[in-house]
Amino acid sequence: MHKLLVTLVLFISFLYANDKVEIYATSIESQDNIVKANGEVTVIYKDYVLTSKEAVYDKNSAELELFGNIRATQGSNYKLLGERAKLNIANKERSFQPFYMLENNSKVWISGDEGKAKDKDMEISSGVLSGCNSTDPLWTMEFSSSTYNADDKWLNVYNARIYIYDIPVFYTPYFGYSLDTTRRTGLLTPTLGISDKEGFYYEQPIFIAEQNWWDLELKPQVRTNRGYGNYSTFRFVDSKVSQGELNGGYFKENELYYLEENLVHDSHYGFNFKYNNGDFLNQWLGTSFKGQSGLYADINSMNDVDYINLSTNDTTKNATSSQVLSRANMFYNTDKNYLGAYFKYYKDLTVANNEDTLQKLPTFQYHHYLETLFDGHILYNFNLQSNNIQREINKKVVQTNLDVPLTLQTSLFDEYLNLSYTAQIYGQHSSFSGDENISTGLYNDGIYVRNYNIFTASTQVTRAYEELTHVMGFGSTFIMNGSEARTGFYDDTVEFCSKLQNKSTRQCEFYNLSTIQDELQLDFTQYFFDSSGKQKIYHRLAQTISYENNENNNLGDLENELDYQITDSINFYNNIFYNYDEDSFSRVFNKISYNNSGFNLVLSHLYKDTFIDYNIAGESIDPYTSYITSSASYTYNSHYSYHARLDYDMQTALKKSSEIGFMYRKRCWDFGLRYVENNRPILTTTESSSVYDRYLYFTIVLKPLMAPGSESSNFAAKLPENLQGL
């Protein structure tokens, strides 16, 4: 027996494995093939560093046992703790009793009766895990067994029971979770809900990421009283300058729900494709053009608006409208020239058949950028655009527009006064096809050409004071009509379609010429900046004076715009249009906001009046709009925040949407409650209608198992709803 009273280093090497164990201790005893170490024992094995009170090493079996207050660290990622540990160097096996592991990056700890590891794989029996403080965790997940791989940091948990304090809230036979942020295939957080009409709602997202250039998210869902379906998102990056995304979905209605709600379709389906390429010509054609090329596509198709409504359980996040636009734009751009092609396709969601909707497929554009002559005193550019406006049935037209402005500009009085004159040449050609109303002569091919003149005078002065700077500008533009010529379609429809009340008729749908009148446009602007250069006040007045001979008032709408930063926290914005003929406001928009001390308040109101009485199907439609939007939020501290929102249509006395709720955040969990009311559109066999939804949303985020701030863990309770017509 040999006893050493000083720190001793022992190297044990195995030739077949090239493994080495280093043992440091204040006292080491060796007898036969057994080595015992006591007092501040430190063991280094590969990337493991273990400390304990005692250690015993058997040279014959290559087993190392540690006892008492064991701490083990592998790299910088996690720590293992226990009272007893065994390492078999020959078989590369390790075991800890009891077992405790803390992953440093995610702050997730795992405790179990025993942990066994071989190479990079670990098995844990009968334990618990959490992301909260281990002394008094708010939530825990208990399990019967668990496996963990140190390479991919993927944790599998079996027979998992989630507890909030001591209250069981959820059970699942299997739960998988990554302890790092690497993209990988697996299950995402499910969404649960309940509705009086649609029944129990469950959505289980599945994330597939087998390669670094693409991923796929599947979101199967079931609504027990309504039906079932699946939505999916495929994202990809196909080159350094391009990327895309394909969304699609299908939902099948239960027959009873379909009949009771009088829906047009018993299934809802659609897709959305987005693609962006910043150099598609050189990439696809193998060319080396020096100019810039670009391609952007946003293609949408769906059979009705419920495809959007069913894509999520929170309909307030869905942007729905009466039309869905699909478009694809491509261009090639140089310093002097621009070539573009644009495709637009509109899907009308208020009708079952879209064959009568006007489309622009395609639009071609050529633009020559601004050129100057004679030391910048003469400016000119050139713009040519051709629109193919069509529908599946009836009349179609190809309209080509030519726009050529020629400008002469100069300045006087040491640049205090800027003057310019523009000769504007505009032309349009329409070529019709189709068989609608040919006998009436309303759709003959035609040419329209006109020229008009624009005279502009402007000035701007600046004055600096001790506390602020005042900038003031005056501008006047006189537009003088010139000559024009019309043939065919333009000559046939000018008298009828130039009247405002006839613009929306079928006869004038292709007549898009604006009337040029002799008029004077006056504009006054002023800015106030404080000593730090921050804008305090922006104010603009604009007035148009017409010189046409008519019985109406020659004054156009007077516009007043004001943006006033009252204090660092309070901002007020106002935009008003006053109509002299009606002696009333045609548009008034007010918005006031406050942001300070955790409060964020916004209140706005829009009023708009066309002064034109509409009558559709014998029903009088009010010519005005009056709409209120408001939102309020308050962040009390880093834990508590509150919010509210209200959108109200005063013209129809209809609440469009409202919401009130709060969020409580801590290091290891979030809890939120929202009460939401939302008026969403649907398509029935009788008319375009709406459904008034009432929801209670419970948001529970168990960090870091769920992304912080994510609402994919919502539980939604849908309250009784009433069906209303729009």
Brief sketch in words of this structure:
Helices cover 3% and strands 66% of the residues. It is mainly β.
Radius of gyration: 36 Å
Architecture of the domain at 2-185, according to CATH?
Sandwich
Question: What count of helical segments does DSSP give?
Answer: 4
Mean pLDDT: 84
Poorly predicted runs are 1-17, 708-726
CATH topology of the domain at 2-185: lipopolysaccharide transport protein A fold
Inertia-based shape: elongated
Q: What is the number of E strands? A: 46
CATH superfamily of the domain at 2-185: Lipopolysaccharide (LPS) transport protein A like domain
- The end-to-end distance, rounded to whole angstroms, is 96 Å
Q: Tell me the major beta sheet.
A: 27 strands, mixed, barrel
CATH top-level class of the domain at 2-185: Mainly Beta
Please bin the fraction of helical residues: under 10%
* Beta-strand share of residues: over 45%
Class based on secondary structure composition and strand pairing: mainly beta
Which secondary structure elements does this structure contain, and how are they paired or packed?
Layout (H helix, E strand, L loop, with lengths): L1 E3 L3 E7 L4 E7 L1 E5 L2 E12 L2 E11 L4 E12 L3 E11 L4 E5 L1 E5 L4 E11 L2 E10 L8 E11 L4 E11 L2 E12 L7 E2 L3 E5 L3 E5 L2 E6 L2 E10 L3 E13 L2 E12 L1 H6 L6 E11 L2 H6 L6 E11 L3 H4 L13 E11 L3 E12 L10 E15 L4 E13 L5 E17 L4 E17 L12 E19 L3 E19 L2 H9 L21 E12 L4 E12 L11 E8 L4 E10 L4 E13 L2 E11 L4 E3 L2 E3 L2 E12 L4 E10 L4 E12 L3 E15 L4 E15 L11 E12 L1
Parallel strand pairs: 17-46
Antiparallel strand pairs: 1-4, 2-3, 3-5, 4-5, 5-6, 6-7, 7-8, 8-9, 8-10, 9-11, 10-11, 11-12, 12-13, 13-14, 14-15, 16-19, 17-18, 18-20, 19-20, 20-21, 21-22, 22-23, 23-24, 24-25, 25-26, 26-27, 27-28, 28-29, 29-30, 30-31, 31-32, 32-33, 33-34, 34-35, 35-36, 36-37, 37-38, 38-41, 39-40, 41-42, ...
